[in-house]
Design goal:
CATH superfamily of the domain at 323-425: PDZ domain
Number of strands: 30
Largest sheet: 6 strands, antiparallel, barrel
CATH topology of the domain at 323-425: Pdz3 Domain
Strand content: 35-45%
CATH class of the domain at 323-425: Mainly Beta
Shape: globular
CATH architecture of the domain at 323-425: Roll
Strand order of the largest sheet: 1-4-5-8-7-6
Helix content: 10-25%
Number of helices: 6
Amino acid sequence: MKAIQKLKNYILLIIINCFLILPVNVFANSYIDDASFYTVRFRVTVDHPFIEDNAEEEVIKSWTGAGFVVDKTKGLIVTNAHVSGVGNTFIKTAFKGGEFKKSKLIYVDPELDLALIKIDPNLIPSEATEGKLSCDKTIKNGIAVAAYGHPKGLLFSASRGIISKQRFLYGKEVIQTDAAINSGNSGGPLIDLKTGLIVGINKSTIKKSTGIGLAVPSYFLCRIIELYKSNKNPLPMEVPIKFAQDNEKEEHNKVSEFHYNGKILEIGSNLIKVNDLVIKTPADMSYILRGIEGKTKLTFKNKNNEKSYFINLKRKKNSLDRSYINLAGAVISHDNIETISKIRRPFYIHSIVEGSEADIYGIWKDCWIKSVNSIIPKSLEEIYLLTKDKNEIDVITSCYTSRKGFLTLDYFVRLEVEKNKIEYINP
């Protein structure tokens, strides 16, 4: 009898384990299958790339990637900014089994690697669904996730892993995961396999690493969409603070410089509150400040005391509104550099078309224009007026002596240009 009872208990234990384990796998498979109904493909081309459209030394002219629907009624789709491009892009979107349709870039975040794409809702298949976002700021380490997208051209597929840690890295809040993220995954959803909610937007991997993928936490996207749908500007604020990284303690709020109205007000203190809300990283500051109006309260703490300042902030520039000059193959515009920098580069050379007159005569990417025909220009429009209908143009540029250096050298270039090779684009 005891042997029979032991056998019954053993069988019961097996059954219980099956009920505990199998549903997780069943739900996981279901959530991965569901992703194919809200994930899309992109084809993107750009005629005049900005600096953000560059990959190290390479100027990207066309690429592919993933994204996912967040509002089917409005035709809103999210992806990475490095997938959509930041301005002069032509985007086509395709759902699973469908053809590529024309879409429009409507928002690019200059801080997060995020962008919003709009497609005519009538072009969205009836069977398509919306990806459901997790808006929780805290993500548990160790939860099972799937990175979904089109890795290396393998369409609508997933890789599984766990969330290793939510961390502040390279000045950004990111999710670290060991789920494989490859080219083609970028912009796709990172899915919590327990809930089916999207906890992140696949972003990149750390170069020369194994099993270290990065994603943008979805709570930022929740805030952006909330503001956008409320007809409020979701762009981040421009805050005149530089932070010093303490890698040993993994503390990121140490202030290396806070200046306002031409004066340096804080060095070496910690920024601890924004509008009386406690922050842990600069990402918390950015999140709190999105959508605000009026004065902002910043509270700092050093070894001796706390001190608060009330300051007016302005929003960062929208790259979709960025004017530029196409000077015989050289794209010239402002570079969205922080005002904290002491180097002004309003006429930055973003990219050069290989084989163009600008390329042949020695205009270089990553430099900036100092003068045109012996005149220091005050605006892009003035550069255009100084150069249009000219066959020969004298340009002085400034360039760093090395990519990471601060010493600059100036170069004189005599540029011979065919007529109608100069454009001024003002969106």
